[in-house]
UniProtKB/TrEMBL annotation:
Name of protein: Probable membrane transporter protein
InterPro entries in the cross-refs: TM_pro_TauE-like, TSUP/Inactive_protease-like
Organism listed in the record: Gluconobacter japonicus
Membrane topology, from the record: Multi-pass membrane protein
UniProt family annotation: Belongs to the 4-toluene sulfonate uptake permease (TSUP) (TC 2.A.102) family.
Domain of life: Bacteria
Keywords, comma-separated and alphabetical: Cell membrane, Membrane, Transmembrane, Transmembrane helix
Transmembrane regions: 42-64, 76-94, 114-143, 182-203
Keyword field contains Cell division: no
Length: 227
């Protein structure tokens, strides 16, 4: 969504990122509420991710506050966004292989799992705050490698739950800087309702491998274009 707002609608990078972050926060709150009710969120993993992502996000917000709406800040956001998309593309394309590799490797110690989960939080906090991208495919790919014993439903629910406080804080910081387009945000929320219905109706109509390759190549092309 962020690159589309920048490339197709001419939005400033800071405004596109801030708007997308608040949009993501609002929509993910609903999903997390449902997942919490069903008891599928691993809150221990969420907590360790937050230990790294929240401080990293706050540092990035301080940097953006210092730079303001400058050309240098816009350029940095475009580069980070491009890098995030280029990381997302292989994460989507290689997801099945990553899971098979993780299931076959020697299990990590609990201490090492914790350290790597916090470091993952630092990476996601930086990527999400500067680009609004990374909490989905990149986070899921990393969690799949770190916790292959957990089922996909739990990993997805955990990834979404972690994204809520991160996107709220990052989006709130962008909003305080005046980098959120309220009209676009409301339009996106309104459009998401028929979008969800359409996506639900289309689910299963196209082979998963085809979806993954189309999306992966598309994100790679957009990532290169942003850089």
């Amino acid at each position: 969504m962020t690159p589309l707002l920048i490339l197709l609608f001419g939005a400033k990078p800071q405004s596109a990122v801030g708007t997308d972050l608040l949009y993501a926060a609002i929509t993910k709150i609903v999903g997390t509420g449902l997942n919490r009710h069903m008891g599928v969120v691993n809150w221990r993993i969420v907590g360790w991710q937050m230990a790294g992502s929240i401080p990293a996000g706050l540092v990035c917000l301080l940097f953006l506050h210092h730079e303001g709406m400058s050309d240098a800040a816009s350029r940095l956001i475009r580069i980070v966004l491009g890098v995030a998309l280029l990381l997302t593309a292989p994460a989507i394309l290689l997801k099945p292989r990553l899971r098979r590799w993780a299931e076959g490797r020697i299990p990590l110690s609990e201490r090492m799992e914790t350290i790597l989960t916090v470091l993952l939080g630092v990476l996601l906090g930086t990527l999400v705050t500067l680009s609004s991208v990374g909490a989905g495919a990149v986070g899921m790919a990393a969690l799949t490698m770190l916790y292959p014993r957990l089922n996909t439903r739990t990993l997805v629910a955990t990834d979404i739950a972690h994204a809520v406080p991160l996107t709220l804080i990052a989006g709130g910081g962008h909003w305080l800087e005046g980098a959120v387009d309220t009209a676009v945000l409301l339009a996106l929320l309104v459009g998401s309702i028929p979008g969800i219905i359409l996506g639900t109706l289309c689910a299963g109509k196209l082979h998963e491998d085809t979806q993954r390759w189309v999306l992966g190549i598309l994100l790679a092309v957009i990532g290169i274009r942003m850089i």
